[in-house]
Amino acid sequence: MQKSKLQFKFQNFCFFVTLLSFLLFALPSVALGATLYLVPPSEPVYQGDVFPVEVRLDSKEAAVNAVHADIGFSSDLLEVLSAEKANSILRFWPHEPAFSDVLRLASFIGGLPTPGFQGDNGLIGIIYFRAKASGRAELAFRENSRALLNDGIGSEAMLEFKSVAFQVVTAPEGYVPKYPAVPPDTTPPGEFSPLIGRDERAFGGKYFVAFEAQDHESGISRYEVREVRDGQEGKWRVAVSPSVLENQEGTITVHVKAVDRAGNETIGTAEVAIRKKQSSAYAVIILI
Fold first, then answer.
1. Strands (DSSP E) along 90-182, which ranges?
2. Which of 126, 196, 232, 255 supports an S-S bond with 272, CB 3.0-4.6 Å?
3. CA-wise closest residue to 249 among 198, 188, 174
4. Higher per-residue confidence, 282 vs 222
5. Which of 117, 116, 119, 96 is nearest to 107 (CA)?
């Protein structure tokens, strides 16, 4: 049951990664529309303030299940401090949200499973800026931004972009810059079940463990693996999936720890019994 569930999750994840790859190559073949827009702060922005800008999606005509949003900004006036995916409608992230002051760019690339998203005010992510200087600040979507429909073939939606502009005001004497209160992430990654396998075509035929967890608040920071062989506990080690088992014989329990960026943890467990391989010389003796 655990294996089939994890295999389904892997197949589902691989499907969305494949679907997201079309973001760079998909042809505009449909007329169904969607809108990517930005929500700036409602209060005046003063020089030195740190403030959020929300990236949101409206898709009333059809369901969307993949989004690539690139946002350019005035780097002479604004500095990006972070790009966050907390509470995003997107669930699969082939890359963590990224940003660059040199490229004047913040980027979100992600997807979500069927039935996708259809409706208003779908949160894609939040960009936190610091106002460096006073003046007219502008934020706009790059032309390579895309949204794919949940129609089984990844048709490209006809996108409308809504950019924003606002004034950064010179701070009066004695002004204390504002810093938004960012809610802490106290939710651990979701439960997951590691899968132990073996394939003659991979890792020299050795047993390995595969794993994948989801964290929708701050994102997965790292994975750690610990093996318990015949009751003897090994040490935790940082690993990536798939990871070859250190022990290749005996009764082995594998613990995989998923740690998010806030330090919350979730542990998944799998077990396998591996028989010791007999040498060919020993086999000949047995035959004799």
1. 98-100, 105-111, 117-131, 135-141, 146-149, 158-162, 164-169
2. 196
3. 198
4. 222
5. 96
pTM over 0.70, yes/no: no
3-state secondary structure of 280: helix
Q: What is the DSSP secondary structure assignment for residue 150, as one 8-state letter?
A: S
Q: What is the CA radius of gyration of the chain?
A: 24
- Residues 40 and 25: their CA atoms lie apart, in Å, by 31
Mean pLDDT of 56-84: 93
Q: CA-CA-CA-CA torsion for 14, 110, 220, 103, nearest 10 degrees?
A: 130
DSSP 214: -
pLDDT at 277: 63
> Is 10:209 a contact under the CB 8 Å cutoff?
no
The gap between the terminal CA atoms of the chain, to the nearest Å, is 43
Q: 208, 244 in Cβ contact below 8 A?
A: yes
Phi, psi of 178 (to 5 degrees): -85, 145
Give the model's pLDDT for residue 282. Answer: 43
Dist. CA 232–CA 215, nearest whole Å: 31
The CA distances from residue 202 to 69, 199, 211, in Å, are 36, 5, 16
Element (H, E) at 3: helix 2-21
CA angle 58, 96, 38 (to 5 degrees): 30
Pairing of strands 45-46, 164-169: parallel
Q: Are the CB atoms for 251 and 229 separated by under 8 Å?
A: yes
Nearest to 148 by CA among 121, 92, 110, 119: 110
Give, in order, the Cα–Cα distances in Å from 225 to each of 13, 190, 203, 209, 268: 21, 17, 17, 9, 10
Query: Whose CA is closest to 147, among 90, 196, 204?
Result: 90
Beta bridge partners of 64: 117, 149
